[in-house]
Automatic annotation (TrEMBL):
<dbReference type="InterPro" id="IPR000246">
    <property type="entry name" value="Peptidase_T2"/>
</dbReference>
<dbReference type="GO" id="GO:0008233">
    <property type="term" value="F:peptidase activity"/>
</dbReference>
<dbReference type="GO" id="GO:0006508">
    <property type="term" value="P:proteolysis"/>
</dbReference>
<dbReference type="GO" id="GO:0016811">
    <property type="term" value="F:hydrolase activity, acting on carbon-nitrogen (but not peptide) bonds, in linear amides"/>
</dbReference>
<dbReference type="Pfam" id="PF01112">
    <property type="entry name" value="Asparaginase_2"/>
</dbReference>
<feature type="site" description="Cleavage; by autolysis">
    <location>
        <begin position="175"/>
        <end position="176"/>
    </location>
</feature>
<keyword id="KW-0378">Hydrolase</keyword>
<feature type="active site" description="Nucleophile">
    <location>
        <position position="176"/>
    </location>
</feature>
<keyword id="KW-0068">Autocatalytic cleavage</keyword>
<protein>
    <recommendedName>
        <fullName>Isoaspartyl peptidase</fullName>
    </recommendedName>
</protein>
<keyword id="KW-0645">Protease</keyword>
<dbReference type="InterPro" id="IPR029055">
    <property type="entry name" value="Ntn_hydrolases_N"/>
</dbReference>
Length: 312
């Protein structure tokens, strides 16, 4: 049987083990495992990689433990604004930005890819498209959690978008969720979803819904989903750069990912990481931060769930 594999992430950054209770760590690891298994089941049943990454990301969006969907952070106006992107290895792609009333933004991004002539829709227009294609209006109350409200209140009166003190194990984590997969037919796919950053203003959009920055997939090469400080990942076109190094320099997935994440990105202050899978099903996690919520099922069927960088 041809190789197939999947990897997921739930954000990267300063994840402090001394503030992580055993019960919380167990809950986070459980959700990561459920998500990666949901995607892997699609692959084992002969499904496509694009459907596998959607299945995995939807589980993460439905969990309050990650900054996407249900667990999204709040803007300065105490609202949720979410971004998502999906890309197929055949260069099809769909993305949405600044949506407020869609339970699973990744499902909407998938529909943009499949049912529109466009790649990226935003705000009211994205939601108009959503409701015309059967997505249900979801009240903001669904997304509200006490944890995210407390995070916002801690910095709302400042111009900051990151907490100066972490009151939660991952308050200083750059929250994104994502998945990459290779299916039995050689198709690669990547998906990324996020609630953005706490206290954001002006309709800010990061790297997650941008092809070549936070998300990229190319059959015969690699699929990538990023998690980190979006502005830096945008400036360095991180996922496109990794793919280009593999395509033109012939670097393997590990070498290319590490060169970008540990190189100029890190030097300019771009904290975070990527998950990647190549056309042979080889998985690599690269991070220059203390931790990354992540899980994978490799081409041998081995399940791995990890949080901290030292356990890579």
């Amino acid at each position: 049987m041809p190789p197939f594999s999947i990897a997921i992430h739930g954000g990267a950054g300063t994840i402090l083990p001394e503030q992580m209770s055993a019960s919380l760590q167990s809950a986070i690891e459980h959700d990561l495992e459920v998500a990666v298994k949901a995607g892997y089941q699609v692959l084992t049943q002969g499904g496509l990689s694009v459907d596998a990454v959607v299945a995995a990301v939807k589980v993460l969006e439905d969990s309050p433990h990650f900054n996407a969907g249900k667990g999204s952070v709040l803007t300065h106006k105490e609202m949720v604004e979410m971004d998502a992107c999906i890309m197929n290895g055949n260069s099809e792609a769909g993305a949405v930005a600044c949506v407020r009333h869609i339970k699973n933004p990744i499902a909407l991004a998938y529909d943009v890819m499949q049912q529109s002539q466009h790649v990226l829709l935003m705000g009211d227009g994205a939601e108009e498209f959503a409701f015309q294609h059967g997505h249900i209006f979801t009240e903001q109350d669904y997304f509200f959690t006490d944890r995210r409200y407390e995070q916002l209140m801690a910095i709302k009166d400042s111009n900051s978008v990151a907490l100066s003190e972490a009151n939660y194990p991952d308050d200083d984590k750059h929250g994104t969720v994502g998945a990459v997969a290779l299916d039995q037919y050689g198709n690669l796919a990547a998906a990324t979803s996020t609630g953005g950053i706490t206290n954001k203003k002006y309709g800010r959009v990061g790297d997650s819904p941008i092809i070549g920055a936070g998300t990229f997939a190319e059959n015969g090469n690699v699929a990538i989903s990023a998690a980190g400080v979006g502005e830096f990942f945008l400036r360095k076109a991180v996922s496109a750069d990794i793919a280009a190094r593999m395509r033109y320099l012939g670097e393997n997935v590990q070498t290319a990912c590490e060169a970008v994440i540990q190189g100029e990105l890190k030097e300019m202050g771009g904290e975070g990481g990527v998950i990647a899978v190549d056309c042979q099903g080889e998985i690599h996690f690269a991070l220059n931060s203390i931790g990354m919520y992540r899980a994978s099922v490799d081409k041998s069927g081995q399940l791995n769930v990890k949080i901290y960088a030292e356990k890579t």
